[in-house]
Amino acid sequence: MADWIPDVLGEEFAQLTLELGDDDEGPVVATLVRALPIEAGWWERLLGRRRPLEDVDVLYVHGWSDYFFQKRLARFWTARGARFYALDLRKYGRSLRPGQTPGYITDLATYDEDIAAALDAMGRGADGAASARRLVLFGHSTGGLTLSLWASRHQGSADAVILNSPWLEFQVASVRPLIAPVAELQARWAPREVAPQVDLGFYTRAQQEVADPDDPVEVNLDWRPVQTMAVHAGWFHAILRGHTTVAAGLTIAEPVCVLLSARSATPTRWSDDLTRADTVLVVDDIARAALKLGPSVTVERIDGALHDVFLSRHEAREDAYRRLGRWVSGWAAAQT
């Protein structure tokens, strides 16, 4: 296995390349990024003080047309004693290689290989269970869909699942059963056919409009373009199959926390309203779909939040971190 090397995010972070074999586009890799907590001071050790999450590993998976860059999110966990890891999936971000189709996949279960390699590198074994440390899965958007399906298939591997605006349902839920057969045919006969670009770049603009100079975020536009990456028929069919599976009901036994904006907005033309809503998902449909994940689901609706609630304007972002902190504190206390 390759060695840990410094990461693009700076001295707090390191990255590890995970070799995943070859596909029809050549060698495939995933990239694991880690942030470790600063060791407790001598006074904390003298007083016997333990941070509440010192026995916790967090594995974060990004969304579509995305990669991991959220330093503050990592610090939220490491300040509480957890080890934080983020996975750039194959053909995304740090893992994208020349000649590869960005983000392309035809079955979300293929990411089981990426996740298994990450968990093994974290010292947990390929199924995540070979450790006495607790495991928290944290997914955003498509990453939330991927981790939800994984957790349902791998019972007992995780101890909690946290989802930031997970893409659990198609944007027009009632239409999904009608378009699924067409999507299946397209995926079978022309899997790399590209859909028309419908993203006008307003979601990226909204993030830029609400950026906080006191909480700066630097984004590599080669890895997270202003408009989303090209949508291919094979990938789209994989997503719809994931939505269908969620709609039928998953079996995540562990506690689940879902963070969502309070409302959606349609990004057909620019307005300031797009800086206070989710312009990617229909959040009411996602809230309903979340209840299909398992028997213990908490849904947090955040007023003024964007699709990534942790990249929202200051007030909404702080609210998101408060709610996350409250839920994590309650979960950690219940586990002791």
What form results from the Cα inertia axes?
globular
* CATH level-1 class: Alpha Beta
CATH H level: which superfamily?
Answer: Alpha/Beta hydrolase fold, catalytic domain
What is the CATH third-level topology name?
Rossmann fold
Distance between the termini: 35 Å
Helix fraction, binned, reads 25-40%
Task: Give a written overview of the molecule.
By secondary structure, the chain is of the alpha/beta class. The protein has a single domain, classed as Rossmann fold. It contains nine helices and nine strands. It has a nine-stranded mixed β-sheet with strand order 1-2-3-5-4-6-7-8-9, sandwiched between helices. A hairpin with a 2-residue loop joins strand 2 and strand 3. Helix 4 crosses helix 7 and helix 5 packs antiparallel against helix 7. The protein is globular.
Q: Topology of this protein?
A:
Blueprint: E1 5-7, E2 10-23, E3 26-35, H1 42-46, E4 56-61, H2 71-78, E5 83-88, H3 111-121, E6 134-140, H4 142-153, E7 160-164, H5 176-189, H6 202-209, H7 233-248, E8 256-261, H8 283-290, E9 297-302, H9 314-335
Parallel strand pairs: 4-5, 4-6, 6-7, 7-8, 8-9
Antiparallel strand pairs: 1-2, 2-3, 3-5
Provide the descriptors you would attach to this structure in a database record.
336 residues; alpha/beta; Rossmann fold; nine-stranded mixed β-sheet
Task: Quickly describe the structure.
The protein has 336 residues and is an alpha/beta fold.
